[in-house]
Design goal:
Blueprint: H1 5-32, E1 36-52, E2 68-72, E3 75-78, E4 83-86, E5 95-99, H2 101-111, E6 118-125, H3 137-151, E7 152-154, E8 160-163, E9 177-178, E10 181-187, H4 198-205, H5 216-223, E11 228-229, E12 235-242, E13 246-251, E14 254-259, H6 266-284, H7 288-294, E15 300-305, E16 314-319, E17 326-331, H8 339-349, E18 355-356, H9 384-389, E19 394-402, E20 412-418, E21 425-431, E22 449-454, E23 474-479, E24 492-498, E25 514-516, E26 520-523, E27 528-539, E28 543-551, H10 562-565
Parallel strand pairs: 9-11, 10-12, 10-15, 15-17, 18-24, 19-21
Antiparallel strand pairs: 1-2, 1-6, 1-16, 2-5, 3-4, 6-7, 6-8, 13-14, 16-17, 20-28, 21-22, 22-23, 23-24, 25-27, 26-27, 27-28
The structure holds 2-acetamido-2-deoxy-beta-D-glucopyranose (NAG) (4 copies).
One 2-acetamido-2-deoxy-beta-D-glucopyranose binds at residues 233, 287, 289.
Length: 586
């Protein structure tokens, strides 16, 4: 959230106003039983989930059916300890206003919002207690509160964005990003999480004796090239803690019912976090290390390891981008803990979305935000677009190509791409829809392609040691329209895996070593557009050689045309016009 007094004053003002309205509303309902509107200012939180364990009827398999947009209380500074907390007077009904990837993505597009933005919205409060017509103001308020949380109905057209959060967060720009986190092992409803001591989980989290290869500390050190740090000094593991199975929990001025024996919904997720943090605050009285981590009130990670019997149908769910004082992730333990699920959820907190292919939300096997295979507790790092999005890696020298880098006479580059694990300068970005990399350059809607080379590392704990064998020594091509910006929530799309053969190859090249992207007519006035052809020249243990060719047309030209006279290879088929069958039909 933005830390300026204007916005928190605004939030307070609105929260106060809303309470007043809730009061009036309760009064009004006593008289005429009508719905009463309240207006609130709320903070948006987007949650992204990993893999439904059960397909939901009527939804495509492997779509993220548990993604949500939630409305939360804005945060204010607590004057007693100087820590950002949900506004205690807030009467924003904690609500899910979108569910499933399609709805969440449509919502984000429509309002251009990400986690941490503030919206104004109007709720109608339904009166369910028709016979409740006695009681003083205090009673009315309680009734209003109780009604509010279950009976608040959002007026869909009432949403207005009041503030976009532009605070720089977690894109690497030169100083290491030090993560602070508390990981809770929790038990409830007679169910136990599989880790009976903090020590048992530490082997998945830290590079200590007996740790798994892909422990989180190594994951971050290796995959981020030392740019984001997960250090045991700043990560506390707490538990097992015993939480309530059902009850009520307060948030802001409202109380909510939760019942973990029956559901795994917004209220349960909220209670688990608050319940665990409350117990940890008590433990912190005699544990200065824990105390200093809990006092960290800027983007602190809170990861919850849940018992396998929970009613949650996801492998994991997390706040997409970390804003305000905390961001959450919840890990289901129905299947044995796999480090790539931990990393997946933590990287949602870091700002990343899912990595897909075609219609498959998690269809990209080259990225842990996609269809990471069970990694054998090894390290599986990000694809090129996501490494670039958070500043972990960048193009090779001469590897950022825009339209101006190509001419019909020089439309082919031969480039050596090092294995992603060997250096953080390891990708080629081709953007022929843009006239230059500078901001404000003219552009058209055209895919931005990312080329990288992935090698399954055999060194213990090495970069991509958890990469699937099928992708070993592979040139991979992604499409990504995102930017290197905390507000960017775009998904990356895998388009081809090759080396030397592409799985998605151009049939005009029987050797299958050429991939051709969709063609947009070249505009000679703007110099933008055309098509991209990528040929894998060779692959080796630590680098690949590729040929990147910009197509100015799909065929060389008509026989006798000016194009056929100019002796160029405008269609990137490897034949100059004089030798191209397009120009010389038999
Ligand atoms: C909450 O409301 C009470 C009563 O109006 C007020 O005294 C208090 O300062 C408010 N708290 C915050 C954090 O705004
Ligand atoms: C607290 O942290 C220090 C320094 O990292 C460490 O030496 C010490 O063992 C920790 N104490 C506890 C109780 O974990
Ligand atoms: C494999 O990992 C080791 C250790 O992290 C690293 O030095 C080496 O460059 C990696 N090799 C490749 C091909 O990624
Ligand atoms: C080609 O680019 C020019 C200059 O940007 C633009 O005015 C024109 O509309 C474009 N032509 C087509 C067919 O897109």
């Amino acid at each position: 959230m933005a830390r300026n007094s204007y916005s928190s004053n605004l939030a307070l003002l609105c929260a106060g106003f809303a309470l007043l309205c809730a009061l009036c509303g309760a009064q009004a309902r006593k008289n005429n039983l009508q719905d009463s509107p309240i207006q609130v200012v709320a903070t948006v939180k987007i949650m992204r989930s990993y893999r439904s364990l059960k397909a939901i009827r009527g939804k495509r398999a492997f779509r993220s059916t548990h993604d949500t947009v939630e409305l939360h209380c804005p945060e204010v500074i607590d004057p007693t300890d100087g820590i950002w907390k949900p506004d205690p007077n807030c009467s924003v009904p904690l609500t899910r206003i979108a569910r499933g990837d399609d709805e969440v993505t449509a919502f984000q597009r429509r309002y251009n919002v990400i986690s941490g933005d503030k919206i104004a919205a109007t709720f109608d409060i339904r009166n369910r207690r028709k016979n409740d017509n006695n009681g003083d103001a205090r009673r009315s308020l309680r009734t209003a509160r109780e009604n509010l949380v279950t009976d608040a109905i959002l007026r869909p057209d009432s949403i207005q964005v009041v503030e976009r959060n532009n605070e720089p967060k977690e894109v690497y720009t030169g100083s290491p990003i030090q993560l602070r986190a508390v990981v809770y092992l929790v038990d409830f409803c007679g169910w136990k999480n599989p880790f009976r001591s903090a020590q048992a989980l530490r082997t998945y989290l830290f590079s200590e004796n007996g740790a798994v290869e892909g422990n989180m500390q190594n994951y971050y050190r290796t995959c981020s090239y030392g740019k984001t740090i997960w250090d045991p000094k700043y990560v506390a593991v707490v538990g097992p803690l015993q939480l309530d199975c059902k009850g009520t929990v307060a948030n802001g001025a409202l109380r909510y019912n939760f019942d973990a024996s029956k559901s795994c919904d917004t209220n349960e997720l909220m209670y688990w976090r608050i319940g665990a943090d409350t117990q940890a605050q008590k433990l912190a009285a005699s544990d200065p290390n824990l105390s200093s981590i809990l006092q960290w009130s800027q983007r602190r990670r809170v990861m919850m390891i849940l018992p396998p019997e929970t009613k949650c149908n996801f492998n994991g769910i997390a706040d997409a981008s970390c804003v305000g004082s905390i961001c959450r992730s919840f890990i289901n333990t129905k299947s044995p803990l796999d480090v790539n699920v931990l990393f997946h959820e933590l990287q949602h907190n870091h700002g990343l979305n899912h990595a897909g292919r075609n219609e498959l939300e998690y269809g990209d096997p080259t990225d842990p935000m996609g269809d990471s295979p069970a990694s054998g507790q090894k390290v599986h790092c990000h694809n090129a677009p996501y490494n670039w999005r958070i500043g972990w890696a960048r193009p090779i020298a001469g590897g950022l190509l825009t339209a101006a880098n190509f001419t019909p006479a020089a439309n082919r580059f031969v480039l050596t791409i090092p294995a992603s694990g060997t250096t953080d300068m390891n990708m080629v970005i081709v953007n022929m829809g843009s006239s230059s990399p500078q901001a404000g350059a003219s552009f058209i809607t055209y895919p931005k392609y990312f080329l990288s080379f992935r090698v399954r590392n055999v060194t213990f704990g090495g970069y991509d040691s958890g990469l699937s064998a099928a992708i070993n020594q592979a040139v991979v091509i992604h499409k990504y329209d995102g930017t290197m910006n905390d507000r960017d929530a775009s998904k990356s799309t895998l388009v081809a895996i090759g080396g030397p053969r592409f799985d998605s190859f151009d049939p005009a090249f029987p050797a299958r070593d050429v991939w051709t992207g969709p063609f947009t007519p070249f505009n000679s006035t703007s110099g933008l557009g055309g098509g991209l052809r990528v040929k894998v020249v060779s692959v080796g243990p630590s680098s690949a050689v590729v040929e990147v060719c910009r197509m100015y047309s799909q065929t060389e030209g008509k026989p006798g045309s000016a194009e056929c006279q100019a002796n160029l290879d405008r269609d990137c088929d490897g034949k100059m016009a004089s030798l191209d069958s397009d120009c010389n039909p038999k």
